[in-house]
């Protein structure tokens, strides 16, 4: 094998085979969910929930507590988002894409600060606040918590938060040895850019279908 392949698979030495397989499946489902999100398609939620369930298990194995909580939170936001996205505002139209109001921006600030405090407390409780990855993990968790709430509310700004979070997460997962997942975040960065553009074109437009 080439040095690149040798290095790539060396990152998985000592990792159980089922963890590697689950990571690949979770990545594929996560990419599908991100793509459906870009398309403003309700299938974002079933694919996202399955990916979330897989990564909760994987992240517990690697001890990435902040990201584990992200996925647990994402599950609850998926249920909430599924409801918001399928809710009709009249006889024919579903919830449209909009921008955040002043009140919603205030809620975002509250979610961000509360998440920082909460994740810090988790790391301290388990005595794992001892690495730079804990600081980065806490920051990205707060960013993604805001992004997921905005996504569930169908707010355009969710893509800005997702873009920032994905850029920061890419090297974190690469450092942790989750190579497939780090490549997933690279693709997430690209999808975030195109997702923002796609949603901006449909801003405030009435929606008559959930399967775009």
Automatic annotation (TrEMBL):
It comes from the Bacteria. Pfam families: NMN_transporter (PF04973). Coiled coil: none annotated. The keyword Transmembrane applies. The chain crosses the membrane at residues 15-36, 43-62, 68-86, 107-126, 132-152, 181-199. GO terms for cellular component: plasma membrane. It is found in: Cell membrane. InterPro entries: NMN_transpt_PnuC. GO terms for molecular function: nicotinamide riboside transmembrane transporter activity. Keywords: Cell membrane, Membrane, Transmembrane, Transmembrane helix, Transport. It is a multi-pass membrane protein. Required for nicotinamide riboside transport across the inner membrane. NCBIfam families: NMN_trans_PnuC (TIGR01528). Belongs to the nicotinamide ribonucleoside (NR) uptake permease (TC 4.B.1) family. This is Nicotinamide riboside transporter PnuC. It comes from Aequorivita lipolytica.
